[in-house]
Each structure stands twice: as C-alpha cells, then as structure tokens.
Amino acid sequence: MLAHIAEIIGGIAIVISISYLSIQVADSNWFLRSQAHYNGLTLVRAPAAMIIENPQLSSLISRCDIDDSDLKQADLVICDNFYLMQFNALEYLYCQNIDGSIPPELWSGASAYYDHEIKKSLATVYFGRKTPLPSLSHSIAIWTTPLVSRLATPKNS
C-alpha cells in the first residue's frame, strides 16, 4: 500500500517537474528572441551612430555614395568597411527573420530601408566597381544579388 502511494507521489512530482521545465524553456525562448531583437537594433544603429558622431565620416560616406572614383585607397577602405557593416546588419536581420526571432515589423522596416540604400548608392556606386561581398551568406546573397546586378548594369539609351 505504501509503495502505491509513493508511486503516485513520484508521478505527481514528475508532472510538476516537466511543467516547470516547459515554463523555463518558454522563458528562455522569450529571452533569446528579445536578445535577437536587441542585437538587430544594435547592428542597424551602429553605422548611423558613427555618421552622426563623426562629420568627417559622414562627408566621406556621402562622397562614396555619389562618386568614389577620385577617392584615395584609404578612403575606399573606410567606405567598404562601412558598407560591409550595413550588409552584416542586413544579413543578421534577414536570417533572424527567417528563424522568426525578430518581430516581423523590424524586418519589414529594415528590408525597406536597405532596399532603398542598395538602390540609392550601394549598387550604383559600390557595386559598379566591385562584385557582391563574399562575406554574405548564401541566403542574403540570393536576396541582394538580382537587385544589385540589375541596378549596377549600365542602361542602354
């Protein structure tokens, strides 16, 4: 009789333990999604903060966006790295969106912003002299390469 009571108590303890673990896993998932959101915002904000804080960098990036043919190699390296930071942020957000780790609104806004940036300057100037960045993952390269190719190709008039 005592053994049956111990078995029942043991079964109840197992159910309680499993319930507690499921709550812990749900909390952990929420924390990871929150961290992914924060990381995405941090990556997106970094290039903008650099430009706001440094007027010389702002001027240089503006020159790169318009025409970088007369820039020194050292300035081109700065521009290349600045653009790479933007593509890294885009890639991170793209992959996190696929995983469902960031709010869809964040991806929607980011994809519209980066689409505009690619059309405005990255494709017309940067990719006019470069091939797509090799550091891009295959998934983000698939997303950007057709747009970049289309915009970097000279138009026949």
Any key phrases for this structure?
single chain, 157 residues, disordered C terminus, mainly alpha, rod-shaped, 5 helices
Description:
About 85% of the residues lie in helices and about 0% in strands. It is built from 5 helices and no strands. The chain has one domain (about 1-150).
Short description:
The chain has helices at residues 2-53, 55-66, 73-99, 104-129, 138-152. It is an all-alpha fold.
Structural class determined from secondary elements:
mainly alpha
Shape: rod-shaped
Task: Compute the CA-based radius of gyration.
Answer: 24 Å
Any low-confidence stretches, pLDDT <50, length ≥5?
Answer: 129-135, 150-157
Average residue pLDDT: 77
Major pleated sheet? none
Strand element count: 0
Supply the number of structural domains.
1
Helix content: over 70%
Beta fraction of the residues? Answer: under 5%
Please trace the helix and strand order, writing H or E for each element. Answer: HHHHH
Assembly state of the chains shown: single chain
Number of helices: 5
Q: In whole angstroms, how far apart are the ends?
A: 94 Å
Layout of helices and strands:
Elements: H1 2-53, H2 55-66, H3 73-99, H4 104-129, H5 138-152
